[in-house]
Amino acid sequence: MTPVAYAFLLTALAGLCTGIGSVLAFFTHRTNRSFLAVSMGFSAGVMLYVSMVEILPKGRLALAAAWGEKAGSWAAVLAFFGGMFMIALIDKLIPAPENPHEQHDVEEVDAYGPDRPRKRQERDVSARMLRMGLLTALAIGIHNFPEGIATFVVALREPAVGAAIAVAIALHNIPEGIAVSIPIFYATGSRKRAFFYSLLSGVAEPVGAIVGGVFLIHYMSDAVFGLLFALVAGIMVFISLDQLLPTAEKHGEHHLCTYGLVAGMALMAVSLLLLLK
């Protein structure tokens, strides 16, 4: 196997591990609210920990190397909050059958009979869950794209180190697959659709490897990597705080949400420790 093929295979396998996480949706029922609460808390823990402990610091270090400590740190902070602003704007622009943040008149409810309030509430929850899952898939896809470039370049230059990074990223991507598949499954009831979007978010990683190998391997700079990583950290933190944790609280006990949050952080911490020599 050529070095290029080896590096691409490692990157592709790591990225497609999001599909393993989505398979968990096959073993639950939509009515299992406790599982939903724990899963959403778990996903938030994964995203918060990896964003604040791994992605943002790496972005800041890369920018500091490119532009100096002060300028690089400012750029990382601006990109971090820029990611939050970007995903908040996308959230507003994504169409939904019903916007749960909008007020509705009494006449709208009465026009559909006595069962309409309950049905409206169920549909509002489904729309919110679907939007959350799609936003999570977008954030993870954006995250996986530069991650795929990085994994490919490292594996190409240092195959042993690249293999270790690919294993850790694969472990990252399993809970990230949960973060995408669970809300989409609860919103649509379709295991196939949940699996598809979860797997699609991981496809961004081998796509990143292709782009890195064909176009960017000679032009990718510390500054570009740093900005991408800081931007993605902001996106993932915003989704965790605005979507995942409120949903976990709404559909389950407070302690279940917290337990899931801590478990997600713990798994992500262990996977990061595997990178240490």
The total domain count is: 1
Overall mean pLDDT stands at 77
What's the total number of strands?
0
User: How many alpha or pi helices?
Assistant: 10
Describe the protein in words.
- The protein has 277 residues and is mainly α.
- It has one domain.
- Helices cover 84% and strands 0% of the residues.
- It is built from ten helices and no strands.
- The chain has helices at residues 3-15, 18-23, 33-67, 69-93, 106-110, 116-157, 159-188, 191-216, 222-251, 254-273.
- The protein is globular.
- It starts with a helix and ends with a helix.
Any chance you could write out the topology, listing elements then pairs?
Layout: H1 3-15, H2 18-23, H3 33-67, H4 69-93, H5 106-110, H6 116-157, H7 159-188, H8 191-216, H9 222-251, H10 254-273
Features:
277 residues; mainly alpha; 10 helices; globular
Describe the structure concisely for a colleague.
With 277 residues, this protein is mainly α. The protein has helices at 3-15, 18-23, 33-67, 69-93, 106-110, 116-157, 159-188, 191-216, 222-251, 254-273.
